[in-house]
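Curious: why these numbers?
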Amino acid sequence: MDIEKKLKSHKKKVTPERVDLFSWMEQKHLFSSADIENEFSHIGRASIFRTLKLFSEIWILRRLHLWESWDKYEIECCEKHHHEHMKCNSCWDILTFTSDSICKKIFSEAKKLGFHIDEHSLSIFWKCKSCIS
């Protein structure tokens, strides 16, 4: 994704901080605001949260609500590379899986009801093999 082009297309400023944050995010799968704060201690906390909000609003980031008080983020991917996440309630391990059949069913049901889905996210909580034994 060309971050500068994306920001300009939404009439947003291209700043060195936004470019740096995006470059770092692009190398990660899942990350939290705390991860960003640890990596970019020279950028103020408020600036980090404003950037997360902006990136989410213009579909650069996808915010995942995997548990109550701690959200994770990932770079927004196109529909054909869509995947879901499951979180172990014991060790907090996160499993990523593709969900073509689930996605098709969700979009089919939405179409029947006359809705258009912009984005969807499933919250699946489980116990991994290690925590069961």
Summary: The mean pLDDT is 86. The chain has two domains: 3-75, 79-132. Strands lie at 61-64, 72-75, 83-88, 94-98, 123-126.
